[in-house]
Design a protein that fits this description.
Layout (H helix, E strand, L loop, with lengths): L9 H10 L5 H11 L11 H13 L4 E5 L5 H9 L5 E6 L2 H14 L5 E5 L2 H10 L6 E6 L6 H11 E10 L15 H14 L4 E6 L5 E6 L2
Parallel strand pairs: 1-2, 1-4, 2-3, 4-5
Antiparallel strand pairs: 5-7, 6-7
Length: 222
Amino acid sequence: MSKTTYGLPDDMRDYLHAFGVRESPAAATLRARTAELGRISAMQICPEQGGLMALLAVSIQAQRALEIGTFTGYSALVVAEALPANGHLLTCDVSEEWTSIAKEHWRQAGVSERIELRLGAATETLSELLHAGQRRSFDFAFIDADKENYEKYYESAYLLVRPGGLICIDNVFWNGAVADESHKDDAVEAIRRVTRQVHGDERVDAVIVPVGDGMMVARKRH
């Protein structure tokens, strides 16, 4: 949920976007289209975060990816671009309005065959995947949806990702509010809980990367 990395001055943002990430024309077009939506466009990740996620996916030779929270499809597009031609990304969202934009741009980018969109509550979709025997079948997962369910999403993603796979959790800075004890709203408290949950989870190796609005990256050990 950030058009650029938190706390980064405008001149450094421009430099970073120019030389720090290789954004495909299709991704840049979708980012520009989303910017036309106004304030809500801040729900889209920034290009440097997308570039990092794509690099992580390539680094672990990911073939199957899971995304919780689609919006207009930028993060799904950049990860799908990083997958092999026979790769598969399953993404969950509740909005037909925003994901209609996503589907249009996935087609234009030539990655729509790699992406499966499931509309509906992500908790239900994740439960269905687990009951269908999909444990340890994904290489990479990205969590960027309603914050109040982050703990549930993390636990489900942990079960669905293989050993050595990665789970990325977005918005762990929440625009700096997590470090300000005066902020007590539900979203901030939920982010604090999941951050502490992952930090103390001996099943994973984890680090917060100060990119975008803060992204926690966890590697499943076993």
